[in-house]
Design brief:
With 123 residues, the protein is mainly α. Helices cover 77% and strands 0% of the residues. The model has no long low-confidence stretch (mean pLDDT 91).
């Protein structure tokens, strides 16, 4: 079972990285069409989620996976908001929400490492 989780975690993380780095190419290979415009943004967010899923399956824990997702999501959404081309009225609140969640999850991760994973009531 553990080997299966490692294999699928690596596969999802690799797919996520590909979606982050070359979403148009992955879209062409998977869907037979080029991704353009807002679909590239959606593909990159999906890539972040797949990368976090991979981290959560191996080598980390669900906490590591959620921390990865929120940290990368905060950075990417902030980049979109600062760039301004694709910025709706809820983008900055989403940046703030993911930033707060990143801080809380980071704190929980640090506390779990300091206590050897024994402190389950950090959230």
């Amino acid at each position: 079972m553990k080997k299966l989780l490692i294999f699928t975690g690596v596969a999802e993380a690799v797919t996520g990285m590909a979606l982050l780095l070359v979403p148009a190419l992955v879209g062409h290979w998977l869907l037979g069409t080029e991704l353009a415009g807002v679909s590239v943004i959606v593909a990159r967010v999906a890539g972040i989620a797949l990368l976090a899923l991979g981290v959560g399956c191996w080598p980390g824990t669900p906490l590591c996976g959620m921390l990865t997702y929120n940290a990368l999501g905060t950075v990417y959404f902030a980049y979109l908001a600062i760039n301004g081309q694709w910025a709706g009225p809820l983008l900055w609140p989403v940046v703030g929400l993911h930033a707060v969640l990143t801080i809380l999850l980071g704190r929980a991760w640090i506390m779990s490492r300091n206590t050897g994973g024994r402190n389950k009531s950090t959230l």
